[in-house]
Amino acid sequence: MSSVACSAANLYLEMLPGSEGVGPKIEAQLMRVISARPASFIPRTRHLLEDGSPRFTNRLALEASPYLQQHAHNPVNWYP
């Protein structure tokens, strides 16, 4: 797992505004999805950490739609 993936996944619960947590199942799914991204992945957000990893990650990272995935790093506590 890359440091960018770890950084993004670890910050999800702490920093996503309005989030009280997603539970261990969703957290594990997010960790898998984020860690599977190629090193060349560039998040579509202006909310970045110093290392270039996204500050926020929401449940849209788990969606199949590229349109929804592009919003996976917006500071929104999205859920179905």
Written account of the structure:
The chain is mainly alpha-helical. The protein has one domain (3-69). It has helices at residues 3-15, 23-35, 66-69. The chain is globular. 20% of the residues are buried.
Q: In sequence order, what are the helices and strands, one letter per element? A: HHH
Q: What number of structural domains do the residues give?
A: 1
Number of strands: 0
Can you count the helices? 3
Residues in β-strands, percent: under 5%
What is the CA-CA span between the terminal residues? 28 Å
What structural category do the secondary elements indicate? mainly alpha
Q: Level of helix content?
A: 25-40%
Overall residue-averaged pLDDT value: 78
Main sheet makeup? none
Cα Rg: 11 Å
Uncertain spans: 1-14
Shape summary: globular
Write the layout of secondary structure elements.
Layout: H1 3-15, H2 23-35, H3 66-69
Helix pairs in contact: 1-2
Key terms:
globular; mainly alpha; disordered N terminus; single chain; 80 residues; 38% helix
Write a brief caption for the model.
The chain is mainly α and 80 residues long.
